[in-house]
UniProtKB/TrEMBL annotation:
Keywords: CBS domain. CDD domains: CBS_pair_AcuB_like. PROSITE patterns: CBS. It comes from the Bacteria. PANTHER family: CBS DOMAIN-CONTAINING PROTEIN, CBS DOMAIN-CONTAINING PROTEIN CBSX3, MITOCHONDRIAL. Residues 11-68, 85-139 form the CBS domain. Pfam families: CBS. Signal peptide: none annotated. This is CBS domain-containing protein. The keyword NAD does not apply. InterPro entries: CBS_dom, CBS_dom_sf, Diverse_CBS-Domain.
Length: 139
């Protein structure tokens, strides 16, 4: 395993993002369609927050079924992305090592980090990316 491998080697670059003006119904649709758990919230290309699927599930009803989508939509429309997203986002540069990113995620209570270069979002790295990298190294 290379000790100095940069996070840019494993980060996702085909990004799904949200704007602050989007709504939570749109966000949920993006989570489900893209089978992802974290979406950076951007203004132009600058990251201003991070929304996780867990964040929006916390405000919904845990017992809502598919027949009650109207209730879920109503609940989602009473909150804005800005109210629900994490605002003080820790970011890493693309040259940060995979080890540094793994240590950061281990110490914090989140599972994704935006990768930023010159103030612009260039990728996202998740715990899933780290596990996939580790599995590949062990084969």
């Amino acid at each position: 395993m290379k000790k100095r491998t940069p996070v840019s080697a494993i980060m996702a670059t085909d990004l799904v993002t949200l704007n602050i003006s989007d709504d939570l119904v749109t966000a949920e649709k993006l989570f489900l369609e893209n089978k992802i758990k974290h979406i950076p919230v951007v203004k132009d290309k600058e990251i201003i927050g991070m929304l996780s699927y867990t964040d929006i599930l916390k405000i919904g009803y845990s017992d809502v079924t598919d027949d009650e989508k109207g209730v879920e939509t109503y609940v989602y429309n009473t909150f804005t992305i800005e109210q629900v997203m994490a605002k003080n986002v820790i970011m890493v540069p693309p040259y940060a090592t995979i080890k540094e990113v793994a240590e950061l995620l281990t110490k914090k209570e989140f599972h994704a980090l935006p990768v930023v270069e010159d103030g612009e979002l260039v990728g996202i790295v998740t715990t899933r990316d780290l596990i996939n990298y580790l599995v590949a190294q062990l084969q």
